[in-house]
Amino acid sequence: MSKKPQSKDEALEALDFIVNVLKEHEKDLDRLINELSTVTDALGETGEISCKVEKVEERINGLQKEITGLVNYLSSSPRVAPVLAVEQKTEVVPASTMHGPPVILRCKQWEDFQTLAFQAQTLSFLYKDAEKSFQADALKGNQIITYSGELPKLTALLKMWLSKQLEVPETKILEGVLAIG
């Protein structure tokens, strides 16, 4: 009979061992389920982020199309404007025969510069990226009209825009600074 209790004890020990192993496995499975839940939540957020990235890409593509359309529009319309500007410039050019030092007008408002520099003989501009500043100088008769302020960096677009705004042919607009002597 002593063997039977040992075998019962052994059987109970084996059952206890199996129960303990199963409990450990249960704990491991709970931990893995929690980790899987965390990963699933993260993937859901990543899905949201990728959706947002796709929307941003769509907006960028739309903006690129709009800019291309704007460039095409601006590059086609100044071709008509220079003819008118040349005809009207003949009235402005004689003013440059004035003697004496040129008058420098420094505009703080873009609208003032637009008004004074309208149909200028020559126009220059400078964009300083580090300072995020834009400078435009116009020669009109015996006057140099200057503006300093903020504007976008796209120089090709800026040239077309200045040409359209001031009716000055793009060929007479240069990036840089107009200076005397």
Describe the structure in your own words.
This protein has helices spanning 3-76, 81-92, 110-117, 155-166, and strands at 103-107, 122-128, 133-140, 143-149, 173-175. β2 and β3 form a beta hairpin. The protein has 4 helices and 5 strands, in the order ααβαβββαβ. It is rod-shaped and about 125 Å long. It is an alpha/beta fold and 181 residues long. Mean pLDDT is 75; it is low at 78-96.
CATH architecture of the domain at 81-175: 2-Layer Sandwich
| CATH top-level class of the domain at 81-175 | Alpha Beta
Low-confidence stretches: 78-96
Count the beta strands: 5
Strand order of the largest sheet: 1-4-3-2-5
Shape: rod-shaped
Largest sheet: 5 strands, mixed
Looking at CATH, which topology of the domain at 81-175 would you report? Signal recognition particle alu RNA binding heterodimer, srp9/1
Q: Roughly what percent helix? A: 55-70%
Tell me the name of the CATH homologous superfamily of the domain at 81-175.
Signal recognition particle alu RNA binding heterodimer, srp9/1
Q: Kindly, what is the distance between the CA atoms of the first and last residues, rounded to a whole number of angstroms?
A: 124 Å
Look at the structure and give the mean pLDDT.
Answer: 75
Element pattern in H and E: HHEHEEEHE
